[in-house]
Amino acid sequence: MGWRSTAKTVTAQNMASLGGTMSQTLTLSTPTKKDSIFFWLLIAWLGFALLPSWSLDYGVLDSTQDEIIAAYGWSSLNISWLWYLLPSILFIRPLTPADRYHKTRHYFDIGVAVITAAVVILTSYFEGKGLGYSAIVLFIALGMVMTLALTRLEWLGGDQFVIGSLITVVALITLFIVFPSVAIFIPMFTDGNGDFAPFAFVAILTQSHIVQVIINSVFLSLAVGAGCTFFGLILAIYTTRIAKRSAIIGRVFSILPIVTPPFVVGLGVTLMMGRSGYITEFLATYMGLENTNWLYGFTGIWLAQVLAFTPMSFMILDGAIKTIHPSLEEASYTLRANRYQTFFNVFMPLLKPALANAFLIVIVQSLADFSNPLVLGGNFDVLATQIYFYITGSQLDYQAASTLGASLLVFSLLVFCVQYMWIGKRSYVTVSGKSYRGDVQPLPTSLIATVTAFLAIWVAFNILLYGSIFYGSFTVNWGVDYTLTLDNFIKLFGQGMSDGAWPSLLDTLLYAGIAAPITAILGLLIAYIVVRQDFRGKKTIEFTTMLCFAVPGTVAGVSYILAFNDSPFYLTGTAAIVIISMTMRNVPVGIRAGIAGLGQIDKSLDEASLSLRAGSMRTIFFILLPLLRPAILSALIYSFVRAITTVSAIVFLVTPDTRVATAYILNRVEDGEYGVAIAYGSILIVVMLAIIFLFDYLIGEARVSRSKAKNAQ
Question: How far is the C-alpha of 341 from the C-alpha of 331, rounded, in Å?
Answer without folding.
Answer: 12
